[in-house]
Amino acid sequence: MRPVLFPTVLALLPVALAPATFVATAALPASAPGQQEELSRGDKLERLREDHRKWLEEEVVYIITDQEEDVFLSLETLEERDRFIEVFWEKRDPYPATLENEFREEHYRRLEYANRYLGRETFREGWRTDRGRYYIMLGEPRERHSFDGYNEVVSSELWFYQGDVQKGLPSFFYLVFFKRHDIGEFRLYHPVVDGPGSLVRGQYSHQGGPEGNIAAFEALQRIDAELANASLSLDPSEPGDWTTGRASLGSDLLIARVEDSPRRAIRTDYADAWMRYRDRVSAEYSFNFIPSRGVFGVTGGPGETPFVHFSVEIDPQHFTLETDEDQTRFYTTLDVSVEAVTEDDVTVVALDRPAEIELTRSQVEQIRATPFAYQDSIPLVPGVYEVSVIVRNRAASQFTVLETVVDTTAASGSSGLADVIAGFDGTALAAADTPDAIRTFQVGNVRLQPAAEGLFALGQTLYALTHVVSPAEGQEVHFELVADDAGSPAGEPVLTVVEAVPEGGAAFGQLGLDLGVGGAYWLRARLLDGGGAELARKERRLQVSPRAGVPRAGFVLRRGFNSGSPGLLPLVRGDQFVNLARYDEALAEYERAVAAGNPQLPAARWKLAHGYLRTNRVPEAAALLEPMAETFRDVYDVASGLGFIRYFEGRFDEAVERLEHAVSLRTPGPPLLNVLADAYARTGRVEAARATFARSLELEPDQPPVHARLAELPTSPR
Known about the structure:
It is built from 21 helices and 24 strands. With 718 residues, it is an alpha+beta fold. A 6-stranded antiparallel beta sheet has the order 14-15-16-13-18-21, with no helix packed on it. Strands 7, 8, 9, 11 and 12 form a 5-stranded antiparallel beta sheet that branches. Strand 15 (442-443) and strand 16 (446-450) form a beta hairpin. Residues 1-36 have low confidence and may be disordered.
């Protein structure tokens, strides 16, 4: 006799339809990260070990960026902080190929000098003084003049620096340090705030206004012309007014630039990446973020299934390969993760694909100065998604991320126009399997090499590709290059190429970029019917550089989804519909996948079986799973499905056996635990039933039918 399903089992059964990578949730933490009370900076500092606190507050206080400090204070473990410190110095190493880190060695030399020599006249460590601070930031001055023991001038020092223009500094500037009223320690002189009078003794030091500044300036000139000039401006390119004694306002800006200079030109994207992706990369990758460029594009596909294509491009200095002892083989493994999340934060796609790379010495020599590109594509049911691609390189434990928002709705249905994709090379292949065959950045027999970030050089040829979904006779695609107008795709076309839409819908055009001037442009594709009426349009922003050329990938690893494998596409579509909780559509897709009869896709059978179980079609589920019982005995979905079937058939002892085996294969969720517990109860194993129900409630406390079923169980005799 089939038992009556209590509501909790039936309500939670949809989880069993999920893909194999979709594991039941474990017990939740006491409070989610977003709900934790934010600690103050002081509290975070108190949590640091003494050496880590010293490193942050003393050793790197003048050179660490705000973002890096925020990340360091957010780290939870000693190992993470130690690793962060290593990467912090690696990012500043000017010559990574050498064993020494010249920047770190110079920094600690400056710190030691400041503590040894620049704090002697105070009770504070040298790094805390003004002279120590600027010495640590700028290093040894080109020249240093000391004014000590002069009757007219307070104890002062004039430092001459040759500035680094790449850090926003003038080519030459001064710093002045003085003891106000000859008391205390040397402090930094500000021309506007302090004025020349603060550098002199006697009557001029008390005389205010323009007259006092002029008199003080003239007194300083008699001592040293450079000191006098510095008293009105620290930047010789913006001198003060000698006739009025008015100081240059640019000095305060210069000081701000000096204080910011150690943080300029430092890439902190590794810290940003850790904040965003720390839950998606393992510890050994955590701070090894490398920059990349990329491009996404959407085309149509078989069965009105949009495809998302992507290319991740990494510069050669960031792409590492391992080698054997003879340096004849160069190799690595890339772990590529692709995730697509809806606007409602539902994960529809979560894929992990390893890619092994092996090259010969000659191949490496040919491509060593060019970027590497990983290209792939995935089917994605119509919708709007945030798509992210994480590429992890095992050879150097480095990772990079490419992400964007894609809308795949236009690439399905009738008379739709998919994305327009811009490439630096295009090829019309000799033949394709079918006119509408989809490969990575390929439709039918047209293949494109996409231009990362839409970057081109003047004089190059732009290859444009778009895909017309469900093309009709007489349709045309107009590819137009439009000058950017205030950041919007407006204005008259600079160039136009007309392409008749061929069978399969792949429209392909070439536009020469002999434009005379670089700048921002829009590549526009317009779909017109036979009468010239516009049916759809798509735009993509481009940047045309005046440079002679732009870097292009010399080594491309191109992979893709095999839509020609019978049943594979409906199987994937079914998984995506499950994640979207569109179970009827998922069931229909799984039925198509099984009907394809592909022996390489056994998962289609057990996923369809779970769909039948959810809709109470037990005999049909049994017909799918019974033949798989022995061959796939240790597959969780087979073991659990057979356990559900035996339960629904009233064969509770066999249900317990199957479900216990499923529990040994994978951590179960509430649906399986509830069925197992009820099967225990029906076979007289009350204590096992009670413990299993309790385990289910730990995972999901809000299950009234489970509480009610627990209350029905007989109490154990004392």
